[in-house]
Specification:
By secondary structure, the protein is an alpha+beta fold. It is built from seven helices and 16 strands. The strands form four sheets. The chain has a seven-stranded antiparallel sheet with strand order 2-13-8-16-6-5-3. It has a five-stranded antiparallel sheet with strand order 4-7-14-10-12. A two-stranded antiparallel sheet has the order 1-11. Helix 2 runs antiparallel to helix 3, helix 3 runs antiparallel to helix 4 and helix 4 runs antiparallel to helix 5.
């Protein structure tokens, strides 16, 4: 699955104000005003809301569909995922389904957010380009990723107070995602990353080695001075991994919020637009992964 920078910008334009999605929403609402129990129209409206990043409205639509049908199981699963509930145990995704996620707000204190920004400014001159690939194929590739990241000094400063908070949240996250117990996971690689003007990350997944759970924590200043930089979580076929590019949940960056999702989920960061001369206007995150402590099964084992 390859998404070029040009494609990413085109998708962002379609999602912007007065874009295709906004016009489609207006059309769906007009049609539903005449036929409010039309489940086909409601499904389409829910998908539009997810692509727009209006997750509260999407949750409300899927909650209605969980009562009306026809696919109540999928609707209840989506309602739980978008509304912060626990995924229904009896529902097993078949075919193309949305990537589940957990978003938590007010994750750190305001003072800790400010401390992170101060560290970002202090590290500004030492940030380096983030790499793509793995092992011997690690490289800088501006066609698939433009992101800057800090070095180990920042992790040593942040780790003593950020990692305990992260670990304390994982029990609830894994329960809501119906993944294995928290005693089977360790925090793997994580870092501070900055997206300045033009920064982006094309569609990819994090499921290498034993990575199971990924997270992104946002700590940009308020009011937010950039547009774009949205996290897109793509729907995918549970068996084949196929991802239709038109189906995704859009998560708009919210200061002091954190998003967790399975590392196998395809996702991307849309291009950031901000003042290139104003470092503080960029997209600032801490992101990384939890890996499984359990050994990976070998073929034939």
């Amino acid at each position: 699955m390859a998404v070029t920078r040009a494609t990413a910008r085109m998708m962002q334009a379609l999602l912007g104000p007065d874009g295709v999605q906004d016009r489609a929403e207006a059309a769906m609402r007009q049609a539903l005003a005449a036929d409010p129990r039309n489940t086909t129209l409601l499904w389409k409206l829910g998908e539009i809301h997810r692509r727009q990043g209006n997750l509260a409205a999407a949750h409300d639509v899927y909650r209605r569909l969980a009562v009306l049908g026809p696919d109540r199981r999928k609707a209840s699963w989506l309602s739980a995922s978008l509304g912060g509930g626990r995924l229904p145990e009896a529902v097993v995704p078949r075919g193309v389904w949305p990537a589940p996620f957990v978003r938590m707000t007010s994750f750190l204190t305001s003072e800790q957010c400010d401390r992170l920004m101060a560290l970002a400014y202090a590290e500004r001159g030492r940030l380096v380009s983030a790499l793509v690939g793995s092992g011997k194929s690690l490289r800088v590739d501006p066609e698939s990723r433009i992101t800057f990241e800090a070095d180990a000094r920042v992790r040593r400063d942040i780790g003593p107070w950020f990692l305990p908070k992260l670990r304390s949240a994982v029990t609830e996250v894994l329960a809501r995602l119906r993944m294995e117990g928290d005693d089977q996971y360790d925090v793997q690689y994580w870092n501070m990353r900055v997206y300045t003007a033009g920064g982006f990350y094309s569609a990819h997944h994090d499921a290498v080695a034993n990575r199971k759970l990924s997270f992104v924590y946002f700590f940009h200043p308020e009011p937010r001075r950039f547009s774009g930089g949205d996290l897109l979580l793509y729907d995918a076929d549970a068996e084949t991994g196929r991802c239709p590019l038109e189906a995704f949940s859009r998560i708009v960056p919210l200061r002091n919020s954190i998003v967790f999702f399975p590392s196998r989920s395809w996702h991307q960061v849309t291009p950031v637009t901000c003042d290139p001369d104003d470092f503080g206007s960029g997209r600032f995150v801490l992101n990384g992964h939890f890996q499984s402590r359990l050994p990976t099964a070998k073929p034939g084992g």
